[in-house]
Amino acid sequence: MKLPSPVQWIEVQRKRGHELCLMLDTFDQKPVLKALLNGRAHDRYSSLYSQTPIAELASIGPFLIVLDSGDTQPLTELLNSPERHWGWLVSIAAQDFAALVQHWRERILVGQRPDQGIYRFHDNRVLGRALPFLSPEALPAYMGPAISLCYWQGEHWLSADNPTPGQHPLPEQPQWLQVPLPPEQRARIRETNAHRFLLAHHQVAYLQLAEHRDPFAWLRQQREKAEGWGWHAPRQLELLLASSLSTPEFEMPVQWHPRPYEEPSEHFERVYQDAKLLQGKGAA
User: Fold this and answer.
1) 242: nearest Cα among 197, 280, 207, 211
2) Where do the structural domains in the chain lie, given as residue ranges?
3) Where are the alpha helices (DSSP H) in 80-123?
4) Residue 117 CA to its chain's centroid (Å)
5) 8-state DSSP, 147
6) Which of 91, 150, 155, 270 has the fewest C-beta atoms under 10 angstroms from its C-beta?
7) How far apart are CA 23 and CA 88, in angstroms?
């Protein structure tokens, strides 16, 4: 449903006795996060990546925060700048915060090892593409304990109501993972995930790169190179990035470029084994 203002949605949810929560993408919102967590009881917020296989990214991952009456200033700041894509709002029953945290933790990782990826449900653009795509039968498994959602669509605010709020099992083939992505959006998501991977695992080398190159332009070039090679899995892009950062020129050595008639999987395995061997020699 189209909303004239998110304030209207907030007022309706509170009148109905629902608790309001903020799904916050903390990556570019550290001051807001600090303001919201200051003095807040530990059971009123949660870092969603903690207690998951990607717990090392918890400090830069999304937070789910129960909003109180004293949160007017930081909340107003967010509502006045939806173009910053900071996340979205959700209403729940008073006792359902822990259930909502668990619900989204079960939906963070997609795919199978070793090619798992992160599902960026905290991004309002991801949410905004999924909700119209889902059938009414698939909505409860996606929204879980959420009673209603409020999010910025890109041009206006929208709300979505859950027909049956509660705890629902994760489907074997979630419908929301079948939403087609525009190529440019898919590219941006890969670059954002790559940026966060490098900050978490190769921060020193990445900062050295930033002294000589525009890191985002470099990431785009490396992502385009990986796609040109047929390297589409997250671990393949991560290998290209890590190998490139280890050289003075910040580019993968020429001997690791694809050979004529070499299949992408064969190319990746060759580079992976060579890099593993070099790493072992460096540690010796």
Assistant:
1) 197
2) 2-178, 183-283
3) 97-105
4) 9
5) S
6) 155
7) 5
- The residue type found at 217 is A
Q: Which two tokens stand for residue 238?
A: 């991560």
Kindly report, residue by residue over 168-183, the tens digit of the pLDDT: 999 989 999 998 877 8
Can you give the three-state secondary structure of 253-268, one letter per residue?
CHHHCCCCCCCHHHHH
Contact 199, 185 (CB under 8 A): no
Is residue 24 within 8 Å of 87, Cβ to Cβ? yes
In the chain, the largest separation of any two C-alpha atoms, in whole Å, equals: 67
pLDDT digits (tens, 9 = 90+) for 97-141: 999 999 999 999 987 766 678 999 999 999 999 999 999 999 999
| Strand intervals (E) in the chain | 2-3, 19-24, 45-47, 63-66, 87-92, 109-110, 117-118, 148-152, 157-161
- Can you tell me which residue has the tokens 């910053």? 84
Compute the distance between CA of residue 125 and CA of residue 46 in angstroms, rounded to an integer: 22
- Determine the pLDDT at residue 283: 46
Structure tokens at 84: 């910053």
What is d(CA 249, CA 54) in angstroms, rounded to the nearest whole number?
Answer: 30
Between vectors from CA 7 to CA 96 and to CA 47, what angle results, nearest 5°?
40
Q: Return d(Cα 127, Cα 132) in angstroms, integer.
A: 9
H or E element at residue 281: helix 264-283
Report yes or no: 275 and 239 within 8 Å, Cβ to Cβ. yes
Cβ(18)–Cβ(93) below 8 Å: yes
With beta carbons less than 8 A apart as the criterion, state whether 121 and 107 touch: yes
Question: Between these two residues, 270 and 189, which has the higher pLDDT value?
Answer: 270
12-52 pLDDT, tens digit each: 999 999 999 999 999 889 999 999 999 899 999 999 999 99
Q: How far apart are CA 25 and CA 88, in angstroms?
A: 9
Q: Which residue has the tokens 């203002």?
A: 5
